[in-house]
Write a structure and sequence with these properties.
Blueprint: E1 18-21, E2 46-49, E3 52-56, E4 73-79, H1 82-94, E5 99-102, E6 108-110, E7 115-122, E8 127-131, E9 134-138, H2 143-152, E10 155-156, H3 168-174, E11 177-178, E12 181-182, E13 187-194, E14 199-203, E15 222-231, E16 233-234, H4 238-252, H5 274-280, E17 287-288, E18 291-293, E19 301-303, H6 309-327, E20 336-338
Helix pairs in contact: 2-4
């Protein structure tokens, strides 16, 4: 195989369900966890802070990503409510530990070397029915589960979500969509926490969304989305429509394979999907090591077994280069590559 083309995918940029923060020189997070001691360097140790258990050196990132790729992270913790989340963030900041907050891990590529920082797994998974059609949902709640439940209960607006393998927070952050629907159209309000510990709530009218974009992607002080309230309309055909979308997905996408969902965004104002460009470039089934372009849907890249992060990065670069050479279109990634050591992160970079 010819040498790898230059790789334009950034080492880290904001992406659905994933926020990465490098250590900052400002004062520490202002409240909650009061302990202030450094982690031990010993691998496999568990460290406690106000009831939170930080696990060092044992958690494999491949177990946190739908691609099934990635080495160990230095620190790992699960949080189940907003108080735990803020405590974990404060502790990382006090000890100058870079951290990422992830949900389902459905849009990320971890490196085989791992991550020299703390991975915070968002398990804020509550669901509250405020009134008919009004759902307040934790950001770690599975988006596909929400879509199925709302549709089964006779409410329209999130039928497409049944096929989205992410979380509510990630879908909101990215403004996920399919089948003519998108997340933003169903949002009533969003609750989030900032890096200085403030809890804020924005109504839908305060937020400007676009194709696969939200204001949270350029919000430098965002620490994490906490909860989202959806407002849906009653529909007698919602359940049937959701079933139709799921059947269409099963017929057209590699369901059951290790993928990260759509790898590239569809080019704007071109009337052509990224998958069509990749297919017309003759790349369906193209393989690098254990990574392969799906033969069923060209915008899905599969871990066929034993794929490394370098396999996947090389495959991404080859596909981008071939599409650019043939059509003059520069594809932009939906996925994010997490470099093992990030020291200077441009959180506003978008490919």
């Amino acid at each position: 195989m010819s040498p790898s083309p230059s790789l334009s995918i950034p080492p880290c940029y904001r992406s659905p369900g994933i926020l990465l923060h490098a250590p900052r020189t400002r004062g520490p997070f202002p409240f909650l966890c009061s302990q202030s001691r450094s982690f031990s360097k010993d691998q496999g140790q568990t460290h406690n802070c106000k009831g939170l258990k930080f696990i060092r050196g044992k958690k494999q990132l491949k177990d946190l990503s739908t691609w099934g790729i990635g080495g160990p992270c230095n620190y790992f913790i699960q949080v189940f409510d907003q108080t735990q989340l803020v405590s974990a963030i404060r502790f990382c900041r006090e000890h100058s530990i870079r951290f990422i907050v992830i949900g389902k891990g459905s849009n990320c590529l971890f490196d085989d070397v791992g991550f020299d920082g703390c991975v915070i797994l968002n398990r804020i998974e509550f669901l509250e029915k405020k009134e008919p059609g009004i759902y307040r949902v934790g950001s770690g709640f599975r988006f596909n589960r929400l879509g199925v439940q709302c549709s089964n209960e006779g409410f329209t607006g999130l039928e497409f979500a049944g096929g989205i393998p992410g979380t509510v927070g990630g879908a909101t952050y990215m403004n996920a969509g399919a089948n003519g629907q998108e997340t933003a159209n169903a949002i009533r309000s969003v609750e989030f926490v900032t890096m200085d510990g403030k809890f804020l709530r924005f109504s839908r009218t305060d937020l400007v969304f676009g194709y696969r974009s939200s204001p949270f992607q350029v919000m430098e002080e965002l620490a994490a989305i906490i909860a989202v309230t959806f407002e849906l309309q009653h529909s007698g055909s919602a359940k049937r429509r959701q079933h139709e979308y799921m059947e269409r997905r099963r017929m057209s996408q590699p369901v059951g394979e290790q993928t990260a969902g759509s790898v590239f965004r569809n080019p704007l104002d071109m009337g052509v999907a990224a998958a069509e460009l990749i297919e017309k470039a003759g790349l369906k089934g193209f393989r690098v090591g254990g990574a392969m372009v799906s033969k069923m849907h060209a915008n899905f890249f599969i871990n066929c077994g034993g794929a490394t992060s370098q396999d996947m990065l090389h495959l991404l670069a080859v596909v981008k280069e071939k599409v650019d050479q043939k059509f003059g279109v520069q594809l932009k990634e939906e996925i994010i590559y997490i470099h093992p050591e990030i020291t200077d992160v441009d959180l506003n970079k978008d490919g």
